[in-house]
């Protein structure tokens, strides 16, 4: 990897981090600044995957324009965000306990990615394969994707990988493991910080250490599967829902539900199992409708507003609604009429 390619790779990670930090800092209360930083990678990955999926060719223009807006908004929020970081000693002690284990875990995951750059079975057979369709086929990706193995699967993970390839200008299969590694560490931080806030610091640190020292968890994180990103969105959405009920008397608490709905929508766009989670979370929040109809309606509106766009994305490509491959439409083309795969779109 050349130095120029490495710079573009770092930029492809910095942009979603900026988007995610801007959204979480504006949504979460000041005292949750550390949690906002832990949520930022996943929120930014969801936003950038959506931009890549919708805009395709003008992706860089759209991201640059949004990056300027994000910098301005975060700069205005920075004094309160900085006070939230420095005003709590809890995350500092948490980091002192977790950092050694996180260093060892990162080393193990990067070694796993180095030894298996294409990932394990699902990594190369599903997610990286679909990412190549999105990257190479340009505007004709809809014609090829239904022929992929599990072509009906959602596209957040392949879109994230293909987006990084667009930044780098080349296909490096091992960059697909970046999303799993980053979100696995973010999940540990979210789990520990949430339990430390809702229960005790000792319990938060203990459970975080338990998760990050689990060998199977580290193996899945570096295997380029979608399960670790899916788990991140599950955990993040549930954590925000819990914090909403802790602060339900605050009028601004609905912001937590809006962000939880967005993350639940990201789960639905990561794997088909996430759609069931999205529906289940909506039903659970709707249970008190007969006892407190107005409060429940406001709650569902906040939660559902951020996930509707995800549902539209789910239905926007042929394989999403059915496992049946569109053989009649594709087989009508003669081989001489097929569009050759190209990374340009």
What does this entry look like structurally?
With 345 residues, the chain is an all-alpha fold. It has a domain at 3-67 and 90-245. It has helices at residues 3-27, 33-55, 59-86, 90-115, 121-136, 141-144, 156-168, 177-198, 201-212, 215-221, 227-246, 254-268, 272-286, 293-305, 308-314, 327-331. Helix 12 (254-268) packs across helix 14 (293-305). The protein starts with a helix and ends in a 14-residue tail after the last helix. Mean pLDDT is 81; it is low at 317-345.
Largest sheet: none
Percent of residues in helices comes to over 70%
DSSP E strands, number? 0
The low-confidence runs, each spanning 5 or more residues with pLDDT under 50, are 317-345
Shape: globular
Name the helix and strand elements from N-terminus to C-terminus, one letter apiece.
Answer: HHHHHHHHHHHHHHHH
Given the helix and strand composition, which structural class is it? mainly alpha
Radius of gyration: 20 Å
Percent of residues in β-strands: under 5%
Number of helices: 16
Distance between the termini: 24 Å
Mean pLDDT: 81
Sequence-ordered SSE layout with sheet pairings:
Elements: H1 3-27, H2 33-55, H3 59-86, H4 90-115, H5 121-136, H6 141-144, H7 156-168, H8 177-198, H9 201-212, H10 215-221, H11 227-246, H12 254-268, H13 272-286, H14 293-305, H15 308-314, H16 327-331
Helix pairs in contact: 1-2, 1-3, 1-7, 2-3, 2-7, 2-8, 4-8, 4-9, 5-7, 8-9, 8-10, 8-11, 11-12, 12-13, 12-14, 12-15
């Amino acid at each position: 990897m050349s130095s120029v390619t490495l710079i573009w790779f770092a930029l492809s990670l910095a942009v979603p981090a900026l988007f995610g930090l801007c959204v979480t800092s504006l949504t979460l209360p000041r005292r949750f600044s550390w949690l906002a930083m832990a949520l930022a990678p996943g929120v930014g990955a969801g936003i950038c995957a959506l931009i890549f999926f919708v805009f395709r060719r003008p992706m860089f223009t759209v991201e640059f324009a949004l990056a300027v807006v994000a910098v301005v908004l975060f700069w205005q929020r920075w004094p309160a965000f900085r006070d939230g970081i420095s005003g709590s000693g809890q995350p500092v002690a948490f980091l002192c306990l977790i950092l050694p284990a996180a260093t060892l875990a990162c080393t193990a995951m990067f070694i796993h990615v180095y030894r298996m750059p294409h990932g394990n079975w699902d990594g190369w057979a599903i997610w990286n394969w679909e990412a190549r369709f999105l990257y190479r086929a340009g505007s004709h990706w809809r014609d090829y994707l239904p022929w992929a193995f599990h072509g009906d699967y959602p596209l957040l993970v392949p879109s994230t990988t293909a987006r990084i390839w667009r930044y780098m200008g080349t296909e490096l299969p091992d960059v697909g493991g970046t999303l799993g590694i980053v979100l696995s560490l973010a999940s540990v931080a979210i789990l520990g910080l949430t339990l430390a806030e809702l229960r005790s610091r000792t319990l938060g640190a203990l459970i975080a250490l338990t998760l990050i020292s689990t060998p199977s968890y580290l193996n899945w994180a570096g295997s380029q599967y979608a399960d670790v990103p899916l788990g991140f969105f599950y955990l993040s959405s549930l954590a925000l829902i819990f914090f909403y009920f802790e602060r339900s008397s605050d009028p601004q608490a609905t912001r937590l539900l809006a962000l939880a709905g967005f993350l639940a929508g990201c789960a639905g766009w990561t794997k088909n199992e996430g759609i069931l989670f999205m529906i289940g979370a909506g039903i659970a929040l709707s249970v008190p409708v007969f006892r407190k109809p107005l409060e429940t309606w406001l709650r569902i509106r906040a939660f559902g507003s951020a996930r509707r766009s995800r549902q539209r994305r789910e239905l926007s490509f042929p394989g999403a609604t059915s496992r049946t491959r569109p053989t009649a439409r594709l087989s009508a083309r003669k081989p001489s009429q097929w569009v050759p795969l190209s990374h340009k779109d």
